Amino acid sequence: MILEKVINRIAIQSEYKDLVDKYIDNIVTEFKGKVHSIYMCGSIPKGTAKPFKSDADFTIVCVNPKDIDYERLSNIKDRLLEEYPVVTKIDTTICSMDDVLSKPNEWGFWVKIICVCMYGDDVSEEVPPIIISPEFILDLNTETKEEVDRVHRLLSNASDNTMKTRYIKGYSKRLIRALYSLVLEDTGVWEDEIIKMKDAIVNYCSIDGALVEYLYACYLDSDVSVEEFLEIADEVYHYFETALNRMAHSRTSSG
Questions:
Q1: Are 35 and 89 in contact (CB under 8 A)?
Q2: What end-to-end distance do the CA atoms of the chain give, in Å?
Q3: Taking the model in full, what pTM does it have?
Q4: What does the alpha-carbon distance between residue 145 and residue 150 come to, in Å, rounded to a whole number?
Q5: Residue 72: CB partners within 8 Å, gap ≥ 6?
Q6: Cα 88 from chain centroid (whole Å)
Q7: Angle between helices 14-30 and 70-83 in degrees, nearest 10
Q8: d(C-alpha 172, C-alpha 178), whole Å
Q9: Torsion angles phi and psi, residue 116, rounded to 5
Q10: pLDDT above 60 for 157
Q11: 87 and 54 Cβ atoms separated by less than 8 Å
Q12: What is the distance between the alpha carbons of residues 145 and 153, in angstroms, rounded to a whole number?
């Protein structure tokens, strides 16, 4: 099965259009000649964003990510957040053209399936079709352990309640996405709505459904103790890692 694009038509609501336009203008002007293309994912390009609740998620593709200075990028985001409080935060992912083209099951998947091009030439058109397979699922999760370890460490050391809430929400979402990748061969489609991911995991995955429901509840409302959350999160990740290792072993044995 070939994965289809998550967002087929850009439908930005009127209250977000100026923000998106100014972000792109600021980035292109600030990093003149260094940006190949800019993409968005999530609820804003999909047209389902909720004022004062939704984030703005951008991806910048360039020849050399080191050309994008994070301090200058952060200044742009801070200015726009002050001017447009309609969004809760602005996230920016930066990757190279080489990553997109040489890692089709990782960065290629992100740009081709999850994102839509808002500026420049759409490099995803050069990415071959993404075929759902054990190889794709394994490649997709190449950096999952590193990401989970990082968020686990940040949450363990967080002292500010606002940051704890953000990390728990983000950690829950990351684990649900990881689990969902395990059932892609059953669903045949990449869902970008967490509730649909959660339902598919419960329906197709052998993991205890109560653990998945707990993660989803934490994604919606992160007001739980860090210790309790990490205990559940560790149990979920152990299940995921075991399933992924089993998949890798099966592929090696059959090969």
A1: no
A2: 20
A3: 0.86
A4: 8
A5: 30, 31
A6: 16
A7: 150
A8: 10
A9: -125, 145
A10: yes
A11: yes
A12: 12
For 197-255, the pLDDT digits (tens) are: 999 999 999 999 999 999 999 999 878 899 999 999 999 999 999 999 999 988 766 55
Query: Strands, E, within the chain: which ranges?
Result: 35-41, 56-62, 90-96, 116-120
What pLDDT was estimated at residue 162?
85
The position carrying tokens 């998106």 is 20
Nearest to 119 by CA among 190, 192, 32: 32
Partners of 57 in beta bridges: 41, 91
Output the CA torsion 160→163→167→168 (10° steps). Answer: 60
Beta-ladder partners of 61: 37, 95
CB atoms within 10 A of CB 147: 14
Dist CA 208 CA 195 (whole Å): 17
Starting at the edge strand found earlier in the chain, the sheet holding 56-62 runs 90-96, 56-62, 35-41, 116-120
Rounded to an integer, what is the distance from CA 253 to the centroid of its chain? 31
Q: Rounded to whole angstroms, what are the CA distances from 200 to 179, 189, 205?
A: 10, 11, 8
DSSP label at residue 90: E
Residue at token pair 């609820």: 43
Structure tokens at 214: 């707990």
Query: Could you tell me the two tokens for 211?
Result: 């653990």
In whole angstroms, give the CA distance from residue 202 to residue 198.
6
DSSP label at residue 249 = H
